[in-house]
Design goal:
By secondary structure, the protein is of the alpha/beta class. It has a single domain (3-231), classed as Rossmann fold (3-Layer(aba) Sandwich). Helices cover 31% and strands 19% of the residues. Strands 1-10-9-6-2-3-5 form a seven-stranded parallel sheet, covered by helices on one side. Strands 4-8-7 form a three-stranded antiparallel sheet, with no helix packed on it. α1 packs across α2 (43-52) and α2 (43-52) packs parallel to α3. The longest helix is centred in the first third of the chain and has 17 residues, at 10-26. The two termini are 17 Å apart.
């Protein structure tokens, strides 16, 4: 069974996870690749990391996805998120923040492998369909980074993630995203869910004991070092 950890609040969860990230970083002496989702779920972790971390010159923030055609000026851009929540607060250089390129998705997995692989992959789960990154329900277990069509359920979740969207029609329909194979290849996985809006998603995930293609976040159940981190409101 995948280990489940519960915390009284998102802030406490974020502090504990930031401590774990720093410990994992300290156990390495080369590039430390950290898989990083955008959105709401890991904000408390990123902010705790920035508040407690010394300089992290070996850290590489490997972003999971980006909307097709997005620019850093778009309110929903994952690159913009990375600059505001990671690069700026942590003082990361440009070469320490990676995003997949929609013109050459396969190059992302090659770049990750060439750097020694992802040490720790932080994950978030969609509230309505269990998506991770932009990986939609029904995706292959061994999927690589690719340009994908976003599921309508994922796009609806993104209305809540990005308040700048006022209607579903404004949410992009395509994006470049790591695949489940990319995620599963990391040495450790930590899936974070907090808030009452994630309780039903957490309940479905915890009811499973193996990967269900219709619930992509369940990839954690088939990894040797995976944990699910919840706050009190998300705990079923």
């Amino acid at each position: 069974m995948t280990r489940v950890l519960a915390f009284p609040s998102p802030d406490e969860l974020g502090r504990k996870l930031a401590t774990e990230i720093l410990a994992a970083y300290g156990r390495t002496d080369g590039p430390f690749l950290l898989g990083c989702p955008g959105g709401r779920s890991l904000r408390t972790t990123y902010r705790a990391l920035a508040a407690s971390a010394p300089a992290l010159p070996r850290l590489v923030a490997v972003l999971m996805d980006e909307y097709a055609g997005a620019t850093v000026d778009d309110h929903f851009s994952c690159r913009r998120f990375a600059e505001e929540e990671l690069a700026g607060p942590l003082g990361l250089r440009e070469d320490q923040v990676w995003l997949p390129d929609e013109s050459d998705p396969a190059a992302y997995d090659e770049r990750i492998a060439a750097a020694g692989g992802i040490g720790l992959f932080l994950l978030a789960s969609g509230a309505s369909d269990g998506h991770v990154a932009f990986v939609p329900p029904g995706s292959r277990r061994d999927g690589a980074t690719a340009l994908v069509e976003l599921a309508e359920s994922t796009r609806r979740d993104n209305l809540a993630t990005f308040p700048g969207f006022t209607a579903l029609a404004e949410v992009p329909r395509r994006g470049v995203s790591v695949g489940l194979g990319t995620i599963a290849g990391a040495r450790s996985l930590r899936l974070v869910m907090h808030g009452g809006d994630k309780r039903a998603a957490a309940a479905r995930l915890l009811a499973l004991d193996r990967h269900d293609p219709e619930w992509p976040a369940s990839i954690v159940h088939e990894h040797a070092d995976a944990e699910i981190w919840l706050d009190a409101k998300a705990l079923p």
